[in-house]
Write a structure and sequence with these properties.
Helix 1 packs across helix 3. The chain has 513 residues and is α+β, with helices and mostly antiparallel strands. Helix content is 42%, strand content 15%.
């Protein structure tokens, strides 16, 4: 390994760092020299009295006189193990191939035995550094928003640890922020956090710079992005422009990227939280205290002071009536004549079964559209699992059957006659089997045979205590309802009811045997 001798200024730099209290390992890690060399410099400098804090540091002439040419810093100058494959690697780099893919290809095709780190360093040297121009914003012009990972909290429903997210909005000029811990990144949560942020700031910026998350952008494209319909309606209500970033270019919203890291690194690790409400209360105190009153690394001013003095007055006023938080979604009308939205069920006309419908969910109402035509309107469910059903959306024959309750059946039986009512009540008196289908069957016979004949047939079944739908049906089919009970002989009547007793045993004989 070849070595090169540096200038005296590097020796002096190492001495200055030793005087400041830096350790040998830390200095070596910075690349100035290996630990052995730093240790030798530390030993000779201490002997010369140069490491005493209050003494003037040595000049470069004094350092050169003491060390002369006896030391050489251990700076490696050897060729990379990837050098033999330079031409192939250069082509891959120009084509945009990732370093990890190049590493796997070299191992597979060239029997490369070096490490991934060697490939990564080689690729980084081949890539030309890209210059960029920092963005500057006027007061009230823009805010940047994003989600980041939050603390693990106990779920209030299950009691189990659950991941949270941190919503952060940074004002691009003053760097004043709003932050809120939430359970999810749904569209409704995204809109609610925006509303809370604007109310916290007391106004609205001209435009909001967003990443390409699904809550804001449904199709990421720098030239023609497709904005989430709910977010577009919200932005129109508050009067700001949505400004999507170029895909895979996080530095275009570097302020909020840094803000999310600041919350995650400064606020989250040092605190404990009893609940999400307690976490947000502590977070708000931190935003207005520590975060708002720190000296920002770029502006060199306090974000809260900059906001109060130069930006707050230039924000657009909040709308007199806050726009409704509306969520749009697509849903298929299932065979049960309902669409599912956020775990609840809303009916729509059965003529549109298996079609894709648009659901617009506001704070109080849920509207369902087929293309641009409204087909259903419901009050919004208050919890998952609730049903919102309009009977006019269901097939008429199904609704008619559902409306045939026991009370309806009794009223219909009363209209037929007292014998029919008594028969129906005895059917409902069965404590083992639900006899509602049998009652429906008896009442349906009225349509075919008339109320008068059904009344007589029920009276005959009541007289012989044979309370079944089949009995009434056979009486009508055989015309027995037209014969008076006093004209019947036992043998003739037994033909009708023989099925009920043909397999029974004589109880008296059983007891005597």
């Amino acid at each position: 390994m070849a070595k090169r001798r540096p200038g005296v200024h590097i020796y002096r730099q190492i001495i200055i760092r030793l005087r400041a209290g830096d350790g040998i390992r830390r200095i070596a890690a910075s690349g100035l020299a290996c630990r052995q060399v730093v240790r030798q410099i530390e030993k000779k400098s201490r002997s010369a009295g140069w490491l005493v804090p209050f003494r003037e540091p040595p000049t470069e002439d004094e350092v050169g006189e003491l060390f002369g040419n006896e030391l050489a810093l251990n700076v490696p100058d050897h060729a990379s193990l990837v050098e033999p494959y330079r031409e192939r690697v250069e082509k891959w780099v120009k084509s945009g191939v990732r370093a990890s893919t190049i590493f796997e290809a070299l191992k597979r095709e060239q029997q490369y035995t070096g490490s991934y780190g060697s490939v990564l360093r080689f690729v980084q040297k081949l890539r030309q550094p890209e210059a960029f121009v920092p963005l500057h914003f006027d007061p009230g012009e823009a805010a940047q928003v994003d989600f980041g990972s939050g603390p693990i909290l106990s779920d209030p429903l299950t009691g189990r640890p659950r991941r949270t997210h941190v919503f952060v909005m940074i004002l691009a000029f003053s760097r004043h922020m709003y932050a809120e811990i939430v359970w999810d990144q749904k569209v409704a949560t995204w809109l609610r956090c925006h509303r809370n942020a604007f109310e916290f700031l007391g106004g609205v910026v001209s435009r909001v710079i967003v990443d390409n998350l699904k809550s804001a952008i449904t199709r990421a494209c720098f030239r023609d992005p497709e904005v989430q319909r709910s977010y577009a309606e919200f932005a129109e209500g508050y009067g700001f422009l949505i400004s999507p970033c170029r895909p895979r270019t996080p530095r275009h919203k570097g302020r909020v990227e840094s803000g999310v890291k600041y919350v995650k690194g400064s606020f989250v690790p040092t605190r404990t939280f009893r609940s999400i409400g307690d976490a947000n209360e502590q977070l708000m105190q931190w935003v207005l205290g520590t975060a708002g009153n720190r000296i920002h690394g770029t502006t060199r001013q306090m974000p809260l002071s900059m906001f109060a003095e130069s930006e707050k007055a230039l924000l657009h006023p909040l709308p007199a009536t806050p726009p409704e938080l509306v969520t749009w979604a697509t849903a298929t009308l299932h065979s049960n004549c309902h669409v599912t939205f956020e775990g609840s069920y809303y009916s729509a006309p059965f003529q549109h079964l298996h079609k894709e419908l648009l659901v617009r969910a506001g704070d109080r109402l849920v509207t369902i559209y087929l293309d641009t035509r409204q087909v259903a309107l419901h009050t919004r469910a208050t919890r998952p699992g609730q049903w919102r059903t309009d009977d006019s959306h269901l097939p008429p024959e199904k609704v008619a059957y559902m409306q045939r309750t026991p009370q309806w059946c009794l009223r219909r039986a009363e209209d037929v006659g007292p014998q029919c009512e008594a028969f129906v009540r005895r059917l409902f008196g069965n404590r083992v089997v639900d006899r509602l289908p049998a009652v429906h069957g008896v009442l349906s016979l009225v349509k075919k045979y008339g109320a008068a004949r059904v009344e007589l047939a029920c009276g005959r079944a009541n007289a012989y205590d044979n309370i079944t739908y089949r009995t009434v049906k056979r009486i009508l089919e055989q015309g027995l309802d037209q014969r008076g009970l006093e004209e019947e002989t036992g043998g003739q009547l037994n033909f009708l009811f023989v099925d009920a007793t043909r397999f029974s045993r004589n109880l008296g004989q059983t007891l005597n045997s």
